[in-house]
Structure formats: structure tokens, C-alpha cells
Amino acid sequence: MQGKRSGPVFATAVAAVLILPFSAYAADDPVPGSSQGGTPGPSAPADVKITTELPRQITVDNKSEQTTVSAKVKNGGTKDSGPITLSVVGFDGLKVTDVEGCVRIAEGKLPPGSNSGFSCTIDNLAAGKDRSYRVAATFDLQKTGKICLPVTEGTGKKLLWQQGPVPFGTSKPTPNAPDTPLLLGTDNVPLGPDSPPATGGGLPRTGPPGSTLPLGLSALALFALGGTGIWWTSRSRWARGDG
User: Fold this and answer.
1) Is 151 exposed, middle or buried (0-12, 13-18, 19+ CB in 10 A)?
2) How confident is the model at residue 39 (pLDDT cuts 50, 70, 90)?
3) How are beta strands 57-61 and 179-184 bridged, if at all?
4) What are phi and psi of 239, to 5 degrees?
5) Which segments within 101-158 are labelled E, that is strand?
């Protein structure tokens, strides 16, 4: 009797191994994340190591130009963060249309060069914990597109971390396919053969080599968010310890 039962039990165990991990992975974080293009703020505390992650790849519907992005904020330090604010800001062809559980940034309070943004307040992020947000966006495939994730302390201007503005894009457009996959840290080549990639102003990029502005050309910008300010600071200024 024991031998007869072992077959079904073994089959059930194998099915659990094959199905459950895949389902959990697909539901929680279907695309591996990356912090590329990110850097800590000039006064970030050593025991609260805030970082963010974006997916390495997103997919844009060629007809609707709609896409979704997972924005994750993590505390890799040994101390709770206390209140923090994550902002999700779009540039050029990438326009953020909604961030679940977050508040839209008024047009007049967006950082220079951006076209959209949402603010997400977090009461506390415990040490070793993270929180993910589903970002709905559109991507004009005739342009380049970038996204930026700054994190500040409370609702003030003390910058703990900033990722980007970092581009999503592809060098191989797929106009006849249902959708176009875009890679993080890649400048987009528009679908139209006669349309050169668009160039945008605004904040300096902090992406990988080849898509990053020289640090000497970085600028400091400030935008108001709910009566407070967020410092968008260049790496070179942080390195000098100015301000």
C-alpha cells in the first residue's frame, strides 16, 4: 500500500515545485529589477540605506502606447527610515499616468523638463524591507523616454536617493509586432525610419556609460511639492559637498 501511494504523492510534490515558485515570482516581481542610474543623496544617513529599483525591461503596446512599470523602494540599512517620500517622474516620451496609492504632482510643481509625476508618502520603511508601486504610463515610441525616482526624507527637501532620469528604449523598433520591448538604460530609436531620436532637456541623466551626460554639465534644480521642496542634485555637487 505504501508503494502505491508514493507515486501520486511524488507527482503532487513535483507539481508544487514546478508551479508554486513560478506563480509567486510572476505575481511579485515578474521582471528582475535594477538600481542602475542611482546614487545616494549628499546627507543620506549611513544606517538608513534607501535605494530604488526599476525593471530591466518593459513592454509598450504599439497601438495604445500603454505600458506598466514596477517602481520599488528599499531600505538596506540597519535602522528604520521613518517618514519618506518616493516621487515617480516622467520625461520626454515617457508620461506617468498613474501610480497606485500615490498623489499626482501639479503641473506647475514638476521639475524642469519633466511632463508628469506622482508623489508617494511612506510612514516608515523598516530595515531590510521594501515596497513596490505599480506605475501606469504611456510611451511615445517616436521619442526617447526617461523616468526618475528620487526619495526624500519626510516631505522635505533632504535627498536620500535619486535614480535617473534614466532612459528606457530599444535600438530595434518592432512596428509590425503587437508590442515593443524596451530596455532600461537604453536610448530609444523611434519607429519612424526618418525620425531621429528626440533629445530632451531638464535634469541630468545618471544612467550607464554612453547615455549619461558628463558630470560637469549637471545642474541643480528645485521643484515645490505640496509646499515643500525636493533638491534634484547632481553627482558632482554631492562629491564636492557643496550646499
Assistant:
1) buried
2) very high
3) antiparallel
4) -65, -35
5) 103-104, 114-122, 130-139, 145-153
